[in-house]
Amino acid sequence: MAGPGMKSFRSNALAFNTRLGSWLIVLFGIPRFLLVLDANRTGNYNFISAIFVLMWIAPYILLAKNGRKTIGIQRPKNLRWLFYAFLLGAVACSFVYVLGSTLFQDGLSNWFVYISRAYASVPLTELKGPDHLQYFLLFALIGMTFSPIGEELLYRGIIHQSFVAKYGDRGASIIDSTAFALVHLAHFGFVFDQGVWKLLWIPALLWMTLMFLASRLFFFCKTRSGSIHGAIMGHAGFNFAMTYFIFYHIV
After folding, report:
1. Average per-residue pLDDT for the chain
2. Per the structure, how many domains does the chain have?
3. Does the global pTM surpass 0.90?
4. What is the CA radius of gyration of the chain?
5. Burial of 233 by CB count in 10 Å (0-12 exposed, 13-18 middle, 19+ buried)?
6. Is 103 helix (H, G, I), strand (E, B) or coil?
7. Per residue, what are the HEC states of 23-47?
8. What range defines the domain where residue 61 resides?
9. Residue 181 near residue 211 (C-beta atoms within 8 A)
10. What is the spatial distance between Cα 176 and Cα 140, in angstroms, rounded to a whole number?
């Protein structure tokens, strides 16, 4: 049976405040940033999934049932918006792909070209072989589950709600979207190439801006669906499209 301290910690009044939101940004953001940088250097992405799983279970550790409902863990009020959210996420990703390909072609400054290196754990001959579709579906399934569920529960969920009381939904969305965009500089922006770390200033700023706008879109999907599932589906649609472009237009 939980003691008074645990009950107080799990109450909404103490859980949703700017201190909690700030700590979550730091506690999840810094380790995830460093792990992704290291994975880009070593090619070992095994520990990244563990971070997403921790994000996934965070609401169930930190919040009581009514707190989880407050962040949107509930049945969607508009089920059609789950489909619309997935579609919007895919369209947004298509724009990101076209922009990167138009500006940077297949060079290192193209964010999806650099991110495609994460697929190097599978030999290129296999990715292009008869099992191509199976590999695509496997990577798409992983991309549509681990990060969309974990990141949306954390950023559009707990972190967002922690700033609502002080800044309102719009201000809170700007904060969680900025945190989301900054941490994605580890995926692209700081790049490891030929044994040297580089910061690609202009592509990095563009990438961060795109991730910020994608985050705002995911929040829009959350509000229209009336559930965090809308944000998750938007994010899943984005990642599905990204996997498609990497498999069928880059790799």
Report:
1. 91
2. 1
3. yes
4. 18
5. buried
6. helix
7. HHHHHHHHHHHHHHHHHHHHCCCHH
8. 4-250
9. yes
10. 25
